Structure formats: structure tokens, C-alpha cells
Automatic annotation (TrEMBL):
SUPFAM superfamilies cross-referenced by the UniProt entry: Carbohydrate phosphatase
Keyword Metal-binding: yes
InterPro entries the record matches: Inositol_monophosphatase-like, Inositol_monophosphatase_CS
Name of the protein: inositol-phosphate phosphatase
Length: 284
């Protein structure tokens, strides 16, 4: 079954959103099975361009499958992905589009470290409409649709408005080529407030930890659209705040982002911006 071509306004309609959520969930479940069955056994790249950004045969296979299924069910809506497209898809490339990262956290996946994800999102002119993140090693599928909330294996998730950052966890990630400018200062700033910083190797799961209430914030100065779009849908629908590198609310920032729980946003943004001032441009 396929749906009608997207509306020319570039805004997703409710029937389309429902169908997108269904198909995305199905793809995420399939991908989770493949990832858990092959982790630690896939062939690592011979000469990776970056130690933080690998491409594998399983990643390519999963992305091809995703593209085929989406083309069948959503003809006319383009699909962009980690393995076959340019480094970053910019807003406006297509008013309504899919973005997929078949294995987010590839280095972990190749090594058999149980921390990677499959991420898929539909976006329109306003940002993420539908987002699904598969967390294979915890047997969880996280899904969200605009104005419909977030669910973890079908259970609704909503953040508390009152959690303070002290004695909690904040996530960040390396850039494609290593630590970002000011990263050491950011870690020190958080530690001074009795908050631990974790670099776990998956941008999608870093943001998802905030959406789940397991981390109070995530700072990502560098990423591709497909790395973060699915998880940003989760975060927004769970009640987290999303800011760009100037502290402005944004549905899908493209030059650095902060995702934070209510009650933590100002503090976490302060750590980041102070780090940028003292350690260099945080968005390089």
C-alpha cells in the first residue's frame, strides 16, 4: 500500500503521519534484529576516513532496504541517508523528506560494544514530524510523532518539569575528527557543578537519553541531519528543550545543538557557551 504524493505546502498531513509512524516502526524493528545478529562480525572499513565515522556492509544493506520500503510506501518523498549521501542534508533540500542513519555508532557496532542505534525520521518544513530510534541492545523502540507524544515500546514517556542537573549525567560526542574546540572546558564546567559527562559514541542515543530522563542534557556541536532528526522528534515530544548554538529554540539546528530537560536548560547552555568562549568556537 502506498500513500498519495506529499502536499505541495511541504507540511505533513495527519493520515500521512500515521502511516509514516507505522512503517518507520516496522523498519526499526527489522533493523534492530539485524544489528544484534551481526554486531562484532561485520567487516570494518579498511581505510576509514575518520576513526569516529565508519561505513560497513551491514549499514549499506540496511539503508538500501530502508530506501526500498519507503519508496514503495511513500512515492515522491525523497530519502537521504548516512551511507550514500553527502555529509549533511540542509533544510530546504526537500520540503518533505526522510532521513536515515542505519547504524548510528558504527565503531561501537564493529567492535561489539553494545551501544548503537538505527534512526529514521520524516521531516517537513517545520522540522521532524515522525522519529523512530531502535535501541537494539536494550530491546527498545522509541517512537514519536508531532503532537502525539513519545513512547518507549508503546509506553508513554514525559519528562518532569523539576529535575535539577546536580548529580546527573550529560552527554556529548566527538566530531568526525575528534574532540570539539572547548570540549575539555565543557567537561570541567559540568564537573564543577557535580555533573558527569559521557561520550558514548551515538548522537541519536545521546539525545534519546535526555528524552528518556536518563541524562539531563546533550550537547552536539557537529552532526548530520540523519544523526539527530529521529531523536529530536523524541526529545521534543517528551518535553525536552532544543536550542541552537545561540540559545534560540529550534526544531532542527544545523550548527550545534543543546537538548536539555526542563530545569536544566539554562545551566547546561552556560557550560557550553563558557566553553566556547574559553576553548575556541564550540561549533567547529
Amino acid at each position: 500500500m502506498s500513500v498519495s504524493p506529499p502536499p505541495k505546502t511541504g507540511r505533513a498531513e495527519q493520515a500521512l503521519i500515521s502511516r509514516a509512524l507505522e512503517i518507520a516502526g516496522r523498519l526499526a524493528n527489522e533493523a534492530a534484529d539485524v544489528i544484534t545478529a551481526t554486531a562484532g562480525n561485520d567487516t570494518p572499513p579498511v581505510r576509514p576516513e575518520s576513526p569516529f565515522d565508519w561505513v560497513t556492509d551491514v549499514g549499506r544493506t540496511l539503508e538500501r532496504h530502508t530506501r526500498r520500503v519507503l519508496a514503495e510506501h511513500f512515492p515522491g518523498i525523497p530519502v537521504y541517508g548516512e551511507e550514500f549521501d553527502a555529509a549533511t542534508v540542509g533544510v530546504g533540500e526537500a520540503e518533505l523528506r526522510w532521513v536515515v542513519d542505519p547504524v548510528d555508532g558504527t565503531a561501537n557496532y564493529v567492535a561489539g560494544v553494545p551501544w548503537c542505534a538505527y534512526s529514521l525520521a520524516m521531516l517537513d518544513e517545520r522540522g521532524p514530524v515522525v522519529g523512530v530510534v531502535a535501541d537494539p541492545y536494550r530491546a527498545q523502540i522509541y517512537a514519536a510523532a508531532r503532537d502525539r507524544g513519545m513512547r518507549a515500546n508503546g509506553t508513554p514517556v514525559r519528562l518532569s518539569d523539576s529535575r535539577a542537573p546536580r548529580a546527573s549525567i550529560v552527554c556529548t560526542e566527538f566530531t568526525k575528527y575528534g574532540p570539539w574546540h572547548g570540549m575539555d572546558r565543557f567537561i570541567a564546567n559540568a564537573a564543577a557543578d557535580h555533573v558527569g559527562v559521557r561520550v558514548l559514541g551515538s548522537p541519536a542515543l545521546a539525545i534519546t537519553q535526555v528524552a528518556l530522563g536518563q541524562a539531563v542534557a546533550a550537547v552536539l556541536p557537529s552532526y548530520g541531519e540523519w544523526d539527530v532528526a529521529g531523536a529530536l522528534a523524541l526529545a521534543v515530544e517528551s518535553g525536552a528543550n532544543v536550542l541552537d548554538n545561540r540559545g534560540r529554540p529550534a526544531a532542527l539546528p544545523h550548527d550545534g545543538l543543546l537538548v536539555a530537560a526542563p530545569g536544566t536548560t539554562d545551566t547546561a547552555f552556560g557550560w557550553w557557551r563558557q566553553a566556547a568562549a574559553e576553548g575556541g568556537a564550540a561549533t567547529r
